[in-house]
């Protein structure tokens, strides 16, 4: 499996996705400061909505999840849909390797990259934001161990949700043999959980429930996708 993943990295450039992750991180850091500024300079109603670090992080997490769901879908189009289309599929099936093994190597690669990038983004922007808030606070709140634990929990949940949405999206796109369908599906599917996460600020367990649902949906999509790849004829 390790050799298959190395082969995938040689076939498809990973650097554009690294840059995309960095751009997402910068945008999300900007959103953190925007939400903080609203708390500091906004009206009483705005200040109440952005009155705590956790509320601000929940809003930011929803955006992070949305962005990385799209990124995961884009990566899956490059590693799965394009590779299982036309002449690429003929070459891929000529390898003396089980079809499932090749597919799983691609999924593991995209899943690992998405998870690490999302967690790195969340922890990096929280570190920078937390440092500046400790020096020049914009939000009338304090950083606690409970807050840190909640942020870590939510970040892990966002990673699971993003990967799950990516898998479901590529399953839809694979059926249609369309890159555009995959990306559009990811955008549409991401909207509902993002809104649910924002509305569920008073119920932190909501993100855990969404993560479980996304994980189950992703596994089912992968199982069906694997069967479809095995039945493909050249």
From TrEMBL:
Native source organism of the sequence: Aequitasia blattaphilus
Pfam short name (any one): ABC2_membrane_4
Positions in coiled-coil regions: none
Superkingdom: Bacteria
Protein's recorded name: ABC transporter permease
TM region(s), chain numbering: 16-36, 56-81, 102-131, 151-174, 181-199, 205-225
Keyword list, A-Z: Membrane, Transmembrane, Transmembrane helix
